[in-house]
Batch of 3 targets.
Target 1
Amino acid sequence: MEAVPSNPEASSLYQSLSTGDRLETRLLTVMPGSTEDPIECALHTVSLDNAPEYNSVSYVWGNGNERSLTHVFNPETCSSYEISIPITAAQSIRRLRLADKPHCLWIDAVCIDQADLSERSHQVANMRRVYAKARANMVQLGHADFGTATLAVRSIHAVGKEIQDESSALGGLRSALYRNRVPVHIEDPLRATIDVDALAALLSSRSVASLYLDDLQTVDLSIADT
């Protein structure tokens, strides 16, 4: 993904980041607004050691050639800049915008200077720390039908809860059987109520197939209407 300034002066949006022990990154503060309002946001340079509370965002890459122009204010230069980012990144920012208060996000398409290969390499190498410091890691699974997506996510949560509830007991039993060289074959039918059709629709989509979920500490499978 590449954030391309729409004019040469837009490169001033990005100031150099520290690459020493005091790891710096950028956070995007998205101003409140309704669904149809233009996106208003500001980009701040912060140290991860004392960064304000923020949520990191993972989103579907989609077609990198489909772009959206986004206006970003830089308080360090007191100027606004227009950059081109993947349309899926812009859609994610819009969907995660709150109606009544600012929302602080880390999203790679804006928070990393994609035109600076050295910065991009260094930031990607430290993404584990960026995700670990986040209050929650929010995943945008594309833009499926709202009702279908809601049912699918509820099913995922139901299955996850059952696995969490049962994992300790089953893990202890499996360990005991293994220590005593007893062949392990446990059939424990799923009791959670799931919507198979909704899950099939979500998991068969190209969006989910291209989603990268490695190293996420906490995943918030949030659903937002457009």
Target 2
Amino acid sequence: MRIAVLGVDLGKNSCSLVGLDEAGRIVLRRRMRRETVIAFAGKLPTCVVAMEACCGAHHIGLVVGFIFVVARNFRSAITFVCDEGDCLIRARRNLYFIHKYELQKELNRVPDNANLLIDLSSTSYVDLDNVDVINAFIKGAAYRNIAVIVRGDIAERSAPLINAPTSEVRFS
């Protein structure tokens, strides 16, 4: 059961939840007390949350929305693997400005004389702050004898933004 859209009707004492899959079929229908909605929603995978509320119930909607944003962005967005001289940095989802420190930390782990693949194939958006971090790393990579390859759809859209000679960076 994969929920793509969660509909929440926020009532005074209880809430009605309806979960839809990618095809729009109902896969979940529940009535819950307001206190349990937040715990339930925090355990769901990333999905769209649509809410309808009476005038006094808007505060729980803000809390649920806040939990979805915070919970999804505190999970690691970047995977780093290095085996001898071959390293991989993979973005598991879109890279926003809050992932800048994590990206810098992982790029600093790349050893000298390594081959590095930056895999952005799972992303549809990379914040300009992260592009700047990648640019700074690529400029210094030549001095550390690191060969950099950038892979993914975003690489083609970001190619004009990456300030490195094409001989040092290959897009695949």
Target 3
Amino acid sequence: MIGIGGTSRVVNGEEATVQGQAEILQILDNFVESMGLKCVVELGVADALNSHPHGHNSLMSLSEIATRIPFPNLDMDRLSRVMRFLSCRKVFNVTVDKESGEAMFGLTDASKWLLTNNKSESLEPAVCYGLPLFGTGTGLTEPAYT
């Protein structure tokens, strides 16, 4: 039986297999979203975007963001992947610069909750300390596991 919207129904055969796969993929997707959030919070990406000299609604390239993050061994490829993924989830805004073709990122209403300058109005503690099972480290500054 699979409960949908508060009701239960029996699902057999291929439909049950596809439904079961969809449920597991949804759980994995939520895990990946949580890990992505934890990475950008630990790196201070929202704060870096908020530090733009032209104001908090300005866009920055990945290289500009990286210069404002205090991690010298930052893996730019991994940061790019996390930022694009979270942009698809509307955590960050992303547009492509018409001249350079470079992805430019900005804050959204969601990512403003990740800023650390006002702890009473930030969800940063919930992200960092509410996800203890994920371990420490962003995975963006340490060597990849092989």
